[in-house]
Design goal:
Layout (H helix, E strand, L loop, with lengths): L3 H11 L2 H21 L4 H17 L10 H24 L15 H4 L2 H15 L4 H13 L3 H8 L3 H22 L2 H13 L1
Helix pairs in contact: 1-2, 2-3, 3-4, 4-8, 6-10, 7-9, 8-9
Family: Belongs to the sigma-70 factor family. ECF subfamily.
InterPro entries: RNA_pol_sigma-70-like, RNA_pol_sigma-70_dom, RNA_pol_sigma70_r4_t2, RNA_pol_sigma_r2, RNA_pol_sigma_r3/r4-like, WH-like_DNA-bd_sf
GO biological process, one term: DNA-templated transcription initiation
Length: 197
């Protein structure tokens, strides 16, 4: 199968709908999970997905500068989420954009037995809850989605060095909390997730 970068090139140069479809299929589930993890309601996530890919499709002639399609799609999606959430908030007079980032740990179910998976899942979620929202988001983008530091920086609108530091500090905090709370299995999970990528 062709790489996403090759499919992106083909879509830009030839307007190839099959390539666009493959890009869509590759990213749709990860984007939806990302939106839910940001604390955005399901319907707004669905609308943002539609807006993101519609915008991508109709503006392709102007997107030849985009080198990393995955980072670009995540950044565009996040901006759509923010804009749609603001409109919805204005309509419903909700106080503010959710300032949380939660990660639902589901990878464990495929790795170990359900009983132990639930226990470790709770421990990992407990550890993650001690991180700042930005740290949780960076950990999610790195270990759940598999983005590189440069891509994470683009999605979070920070420079690459800041993304590296953010992830480093997050992992240091996780190690510290895991050792304090005696959760060595949780650190094993993060190591495993890193090696899987």
């Amino acid at each position: 199968m062709e790489s996403i970068d090759n499919q992106w090139k083909k879509f830009l140069e030839e307007g190839d709908n099959l390539s666009f479809s493959l890009i869509y299929k590759k990213h749709i589930d990860e984007l939806f999970s990302y939106g839910i993890s940001l604390g955005i309601p399901t319907e707004i996530c669905k609308d943002a997905l539609q807006d993101t890919f519609y915008k991508l499709y109709i503006t392709r002639e102007k997107l030849h500068h985009v080198e990393n399609i995955t980072a670009y799609i995540f950044k565009t999606f996040k901006n759509c989420l923010i804009n749609l959430n603001k409109k919805e908030r204005h309509r419903e007079k909700i106080v503010s954009f959710p300032n949380s980032f939660s990660i639902q740990v589901t990878v464990l179910d495929d790795i170990i037995s359900n009983e132990k998976a639930e226990l470790i899942k709770k421990k990992v979620e407990s550890l993650l809850s001690k991180l700042t929202p930005n740290q949780r988001e960076a950990v999610y983008l790195k270990y759940m989605i598999g983005l590189q530091h440069k891509e994470i920086a683009e999605v979070l609108n920070i420079n690459e060095e800041s993304a590296r530091k953010l992830l480093y500090r997050a992992m240091e905090k996780l190690r510290e909390y895991a050792s304090q709370d005696n959760h060595p299995e949780s650190l094993f999970l993060f190591t495993l997730l890193y090696l899987i990528r």
